[in-house]
Write a structure and sequence with these properties.
The chain is α/β, with parallel strands linked by helices. The protein folds into two domains: 133 residues, Peroxisomal Thiolase, Chain A, domain 1, CATH 3.40.47; 88 residues, no CATH class. Helix content is 30%, strand content 17%. It has a six-stranded mixed sheet, with helices on both faces. Helix 1 crosses helix 2. It is globular, with a radius of gyration of 19 Å. The two termini are 28 Å apart.
């Protein structure tokens, strides 16, 4: 299968251990048209991560995601065959909240609130709603009022909002936009090793980064993330881990 069509994740377990908890992660393929609902993507990723950890949906007692995910924690629990939840959480701040899901899961495990917490994210961000298309309207809210500092001036996309902070960063440290190149190249180099990635085995060079078109100065095309369909899930457990699941889903 070509990189453009997406790739299935390679089989096997990928545990990551960090002192007080153990993590397992898996993802669906990332494509431009998944052909299935965001809820189905979420459930597939959750099941794959649990399989990776040798666990069953019934072992899960915690779920965490972050804002703008269309799949509520309770709905994912019901669809995935998860039982009663002792902990669930939704972190604010859009794409910047991804790492905070792991933080919340780790805190829940460390404090004994939950033993098996799954962090998840699922979007049809290319075939469905595209964040790059910008906001056309906003319902009255405190967050909407905050957008009043940017939207009237044509800053309607995540890239345009981040560009403000990026420009300030360059000004503060006396840098030029070329400073972002090594970050983009390193990110892509690591991402290109993932068989599920849209750009699998297709790293970029600094020259390609500098040649890519401007999106919102000082950010170029290759400073921005792909708009793709897909889902990812990560399981957080205590270091010892819970028992291995012997029940097979039907």
């Amino acid at each position: 299968m070509s990189p453009e069509a997406g790739h299935e994740s390679a089989p096997g377990r990928y545990p990551r251990r960090s002192g007080r908890h153990r993590r397992y992660r898996r993802a669906t393929e990332f494509s431009k048209n998944s052909g299935r609902s965001e809820l189905k993507l979420a459930v597939e990723a959750v099941h794959a991560a649990l399989d990776d950890a040798g666990l069953c949906p019934q072992d899960v007692d915690g779920l965490v995601t972050f804002t703008m995910d269309t799949n509520p924690e309770i709905t994912v629990a019901q669809a995935a065959g998860i039982g009663e939840l002792g902990f669930f959480s939704r972190v604010h701040y859009g794409g910047g909240a991804a790492c905070a899901t792991v933080q919340q899961a780790a805190m829940a495990v460390a404090t004994g609130v939950a033993e098996v917490v799954v962090c998840y994210r699922a979007f049809n961000e290319r075939s469905g709603h595209r964040f790059g298309s910008g906001l056309a309207a906003r319902q009255p809210s405190a967050e909407g009022v905050a957008m009043g500092w940017t939207m009237p001036y044509g800053l309607l996309t995540p890239a345009s909002w981040v560009a403000l902070a990026a420009q300030r960063y360059l000004h503060t440290y006396g840098l030029t936009p070329e400073a972002f190149g090594p970050v983009a190249v390193a990110d892509r180099r690591h991402a290109a090793t993932n068989p599920a990635a849209y750009f699998y085995r297709r790293p970029i060079t600094l020259a390609e980064h500098q040649a890519s078109r401007w999106i919102v100065e000082p950010l170029r095309l290759l400073d921005c993330c792909q708009e793709t369909d897909g889902a990812q899930a990560l399981v957080v457990t205590p270091p010892s881990g819970p028992g291995i699941c012997h029940t097979h889903r039907r």
